[in-house]
Amino acid sequence: MDAKDIDYYSLGFEFIETKEMFVSNYEDGKWEEGKLVPFGNFEISPAACVLNYGQGIFEGMKALRTKNGEITLFRPKENAKRFNDSAERLLMPIYHTDSFVSAVKEVVKANEDYIPPYDSGGALYIRPLMIGTGPIVGVKPAKEYKLLIFTVPVGPYFPEGFTGIDLEITKKYTRAAPGGTGAAKTCCNYAGSMLPAKETKERGFAQVIFLDAVHSEFIDEVGTANFFAVINGTLVTPKTVGTILPGITRKSILDLASKKIGMKTEERDISYKELFEDSCTEAFCSGTAAVVTPIKSVVLDDKRRLFSEGEPGEFTRKLYELLTGIQRLEIDDEFGWIEKV
């Protein structure tokens, strides 16, 4: 689609083709330099490792337009590091951090016309992706890989925007187990979350809250986002012990809460039972796509906890305003998180 034909003020979180993508191939034990090519299809062997054994990883990033027209990226080196952590978990080749960030900037510049205007609230979503393209029959890593980076103009991940969402706790499904790939951003993790999400949305909820696979009590993630709650005035979030994704937004929120707001923070096991107690006063989820999304209510079977009628809690709002203010250069970036394109 031509950039000028897009209504940037009514974007959802759906695929819209942009102009160019970055491609680099790994062969004979090394990455080629990589280049921009027109966005489009490419050939792949039916025996490719990604098709047969799921050897694929990805990242999610955003490019934002500021009020004065500058373009920003939020902590791109952290995405590069996590990309390589995922690669190592799936026996895939790492891609140099500086080369990763440089390629991301190159793709953003090539698709600059697709970055939504500042006042639209949208962003240019960036999808780095690595797949095992080499043909494999036995269960083992491929010898050849392809790195792709493409972009999509998007609006809010949750249609509700910065208002509370209703979530359902599931004891039927789990997202990941200890010793598995829960901390890696691998394609396989997300395929398994589609059915739980479909079923909970059919019941009127925005997303599902997954519990741990061992005790079926402690909160792991909110669908594809990290979970936070304010309990006894402390900001708490599940600890990263291999079953949840170590979110970059999550990491940033912990810093903002402690260093900018002065809140006590804890990374610990959070029983779902705590959400139904008076000591839990706010809850929200976070991520590149979700940003900071308030949680209006949580439900388990016939039990419901209402946090608000939809308006964000005090700390949820403060953290959202701090995070988005830094991302759009409206608040001083004392952490050095922003890179301009």
What does this structure look like?
The protein is α+β, with helices and mostly antiparallel strands and 341 residues long. The protein has 2 domains: 3-154, D-amino Acid Aminotransferase, Chain A, domain 1 (2-Layer Sandwich); 165-327, D-amino Acid Aminotransferase, subunit A, domain 2 (D-amino Acid Aminotransferase, Chain A, domain 2). The chain is built from 7 helices and 18 strands. The protein has helices spanning 49-53, 76-89, 97-110, 187-191, 194-202, 248-261, 314-327, and strands at 20-27, 30-31, 35-38, 56-58, 61-65, 71-74, 123-132, 145-154, 165-174, 207-211, 219-222, 226-231, 234-237, 265-267, 280-287, 291-300, 303-306, 338-340. A hairpin with a 3-residue loop joins strand 15 and strand 16.
Supply the number of helical segments: 7
The string of secondary-structure elements, in order, is: EEEHEEEHHEEEHHEEEEHEEEEHE
Query: What integer is the average pLDDT?
Result: 95
Structural class assignment: alpha+beta
Radius of gyration: 20 Å
CATH topology of the largest domain: D-amino Acid Aminotransferase, Chain A, domain 2
Major sheet attributes = 9 strands, antiparallel
Shape: globular
- In the CATH scheme, the class of the largest domain would be Alpha Beta
Q: Report helical residue fraction.
A: 10-25%
Span from first to last CA?
23 Å
Let me know the CATH homologous superfamily of the largest domain. Answer: D-amino Acid Aminotransferase, subunit A, domain 2
Number of domains: 2
Identify low-pLDDT runs.
none
Q: Tell me the β content.
A: 25-35%
Number of strands: 18
CATH architecture name of the largest domain: Alpha-Beta Barrel
